[in-house]
Structure prediction request, 157 residues.
Amino acid sequence: MKKILILLAAFLIIVSCKGPGSGPLVKESFDKKDSAPVMAGQKSTGPVKTEKMDVNVQPCDGCVKLSDLFSGKKTYEGKVIKITGKVTKFNAGIMGKNWIHIQDGSEFEGEYDLTVTTSGEATVGDIITLEGKITLDKDFGYGYFYKIIMEDGVVAR
Prediction:
């Protein structure tokens, strides 16, 4: 009898699911405008969007300004560089990494925010310097696509 009740409950849960964007495992941080879910290995629907903040951070010695990085991204592809910026977003422990968004106040053709994966910690509002490898057109699936991203960044405050 117990097995029948469990099967009935599982069946009701499955039938009551209203498709993408519903159910107990949906995170509030997912883009609710995306009507078609993207599965791992499939092409994402577009770049991850962030809000432009009012910041003005000068690059450190040997650092690349974000506008220069965005305008010459092909030159930096696969290279390890240093950048300085203000932390505008921090997400810990996603896919085994911490995710930092930084801005320095510069911009090139609408690009102003750089996402960095790291094992380091940061607090929103901190001005930090990071060093890591630049990767272009990184698709993590599930709608998370980055035209440019710094991977395995090392935080040097």
The chain is about 15% helix and 35% strand. Residues 66-156 form a domain with the OB fold (Dihydrolipoamide Acetyltransferase, E2P) fold (CATH 2.40.50.140). Helices lie at 2-16, 66-71, 73-76. The beta strands are 80-94, 97-103, 114-118, 127-139, 145-156.
